[in-house]
């Protein structure tokens, strides 16, 4: 039995680790994980990488090393299609930055396939966005944003000698968790750049504009949370524009539907979620309007028992037009159930049904505060608004839970200690 998992993110890597430990190590099945990158970085950390509060090189995990320790095989490759009849997937050639072909086009047979490729941003075909704005979809994009940020700060610090009113303008489209969390991280980065020598740049020289089409920030959370987030960001100095739809992007500017031009040295698009278009072209796979693969309660696809989909790329309807939200906690819960179902299937036992449990949502405003809602353990339908230290601890614990799923309690605890040591011996901001 060969089980192939494509996508080693929040869901896929936890699943590969579980199946590798449970089946691969004992020779009960061959577990193969395929990812387009060689290292894994938990996606909710991307805004911290973009601002420099986190060094991707330090926090990334090597798939190959992890696979060797957990009974599965890692293969580098970019999944491009499935032949359901032959039970085989196609992988596009892998080339490096210089165009050197590392691996040719290949195919990989499977007995069971799990698609866990996550999602990307949805620019809703807004003209100019793909050309002029950046996205935060993976570690490379976050690092590119960070390098540009460092260079802009160095340049501004120099220019302020002769032009004291000069500013650095950063415009972010999308007032969801990514846009909001990155805005706060940018003010924290400004503070830390000053500590490390770029002293002329104050908060007055940093213009962060957050453009949100809807009437409030973080619309997935309760209204009072949105208001608290808006108030905190405004205090930091961010310019929040609600009910502001972006009609097009130009070089160094977003143009709104009302015709206003928002000039920016750096432009980031962080609105909307969409699964890559090639998924909708796979024959015999049903998808929804954002290309998520439709799955049954067992998390098998609606049309093929041999194919599961989990995480952001899976479309699981909760009823009344509501879908399981594209979040790390959903990917984690789906990975757990898919893992148990694959094992049960091999044992000839009936498969379990997925029950989504919303444990709440939190947004972290860098070192300043965290705000959100906790749910689930407080009785039916009850929720608790949290803020400050408690909210921050719960927010951090999400990542710790991911580390525990990958490494177990002991190694995850060592990683906490390693983080504390790094906090002492390394600069608090990535400065290059
Ligand atoms: C900046 C940011 C902040 C976030 N903050 C939060 C938060 O605070 N809380 C929360 O719950 N959620 C948060 N999210 C959402 C969360 O990150 C996702 O819901 C979660 O990562 C989805 O897990 P996944 O396994 O489905 O996909 P991912 O974690 O995105 O992993 C997908 C994997 O598939 C690989 N892949 C993609 N395409 C291919 C291909 N064609 N071939 C091979 N491999 C491929 C990728 O390299 C990646 O490793 C945030 C997202 C972002 C971008």
Based on the model shown, name its key terms.
globular; binds flavin-adenine dinucleotide; FAD/NAD(P)-binding domain; 30 strands; 5-stranded parallel sheet; 432 residues; 3 domains; alpha/beta; 27% strand
Walkthrough of the structure:
The protein is of the alpha/beta class. It folds into 3 domains: 2-119 and 275-346, FAD/NAD(P)-binding domain (3-Layer(bba) Sandwich); 129-269, FAD/NAD(P)-binding domain; 360-425, no CATH class. It has 10 helices and 30 strands. The chain has a 6-stranded mixed β-sheet. A 5-stranded parallel β-sheet has the order 13-20-14-15-16. Helix 1 (12-24) packs parallel to helix 9 (328-346). The longest helix has 37 residues, at 389-425. The chain binds flavin-adenine dinucleotide (FAD). Residues 6-12, 34-37, 43-44, 46-47, 78-79, 116-118, 136, 177-178, 311-313, 326-329, 331 line the site of flavin-adenine dinucleotide.
